[in-house]
Amino acid sequence: MLPEASAEEVAVALGAFLLLATMEERWRLFPLSKGKREKAKLVGDLSLLALALSQPEKEEAALATLNALITVQALKLLTCRRRPLEGRGFRGPLKRFDSSFPSGHAAMAFALARLLNERRAERKGLWLGLATLVCLSRV
């Protein structure tokens, strides 16, 4: 018989599994179509956000993450910039959520760097430098 799990444990397990299972091709645990992979990633992201929002000490980070996620997805939907291997050009607005611009990784890095700057101001340059490296890695 399986031990009883709390809602938090289930959220962490589900979120971590879905994020790991839907990563880049070389890390993927099982094959999924692109549409199913995007939906699974969204469920993973939202389950981890729900967990963080349920804990007051993590609420600010969760809200910064949610704000970055919503902003990036809205901009992706409006810009619809093709990914580098898909050719060049603008497909027109409202076509898909997985466009290449803006980078969700870059937006998340700076959202979290801002929070870390507030909490650990003595290392402000470090957080901004790391966020900048994330941005450069996305080019």
Protein architecture, described:
The chain has about 140 residues and is mainly alpha-helical. The chain has one domain. About 60% of the residues lie in helices and about 0% in strands. The chain has five helices and no strands. α1 packs antiparallel against α2, α3 runs antiparallel to α4 and α4 runs antiparallel to α5. The longest helix has 21 residues. It is flat, with a radius of gyration of 17 Å.
Kindly report the average pLDDT value. 66
Q: Would you count the extended β strands for me?
A: 0
The secondary-structure class comes to: mainly alpha
General form: flat
Strand content: under 5%
Q: Kindly state the percentage of residues in helix.
A: 55-70%
Largest sheet: none
Give the ordered list of helices and strands.
HHHHH
Number of contiguous helices: 5
- Rg from C-alpha positions? 17 Å
For the termini, the CA-CA separation is: 49 Å
Number of domains: 1
Q: Which ranges are low-confidence, i.e. pLDDT below 50, for 5 or more consecutive residues?
A: none
Summarize this structure briefly.
With 139 residues, this protein is mainly α.
Keyword list:
5 helices, 62% helix, mainly alpha, 139 residues
List the helices and strands and how they pair.
Elements: H1 7-21, H2 34-53, H3 59-79, H4 104-119, H5 124-137
Helix pairs in contact: 1-2, 2-3, 3-4, 4-5
